[in-house]
TrEMBL record:
Limits of the Integrase catalytic domain: 105-224
Species this protein is from: Bacillus thermozeamaize
GO BP of this protein: DNA integration
Biased composition (Basic residues): 92-108
Highest rank taxon of the organism: Bacteria
Name the record gives this protein: Transposase
Annotated region described as Disordered, given as residue ranges: 92-111
InterPro entries listed in its UniProt record: Homeodomain-like_sf, Integrase_cat-core, ISNCY_transpos, RNaseH-like_sf, RNaseH_sf
GO terms for MF: nucleic acid binding
Amino acid sequence: MLRTLGISIRQAYRLKAKYRHGGAKAIAHGNRGRKPVHTLADSLKQRVMSLYQNRYSGSNATHFQQLLAEHENIRLSVSSVRRILIQGRLRPRRIRRRPKAHRPRPRKPQAGMLWQIDASPFAWLEDRGPSLTLHAIIDDATGELVAAAFRPTETLEGYVTVMIDALRRKGIPLSLYSDQHSIFHPPKGKLTLEQELAGQKQALSTFGQAIADLGITHIEALSP
């Protein structure tokens, strides 16, 4: 029984003696009805809420607690700060956890096994000229820039140019990795009779058909 109550034998005898002398009221804790010593003053709560609304709005509870200590000389625990904001219906912003980084795919062991093709629009000339799009092919195994060409925008002609240049320099790769741009991945459509007779399962873009004719395996990224 004493174990359930969480008290020792000595405490039990002491409570029994109090009950005999003063009844049930004597057993009540001496602090009953009083505010705990650690209770925060209402004025402090109001100041914290005011600072959050007018000066530090949008910060999360942890950051706000640090700001209070550094700039306002108010030292509270994070849990106290969060409780004050919740009581004042000032929900602190939650910290968004960063998504776990995916393990990088291991590089191919040999050059020519996989080429990566992509285009990057950027102010390559800075203020000396217009923004350009760099079409490039990189060997996955070595990281070598196999071919590159600038064009005003991302175009089929730009990709064809770098592909022809790369083929002349290095020969035909086993596979080509690209995003899902419509140049590589056309909208779903019906196959032509010739494509069906050739055993194709899906429609190919002009670029896709060209690399398929060369026997290059096309690998598309999962994201567009």
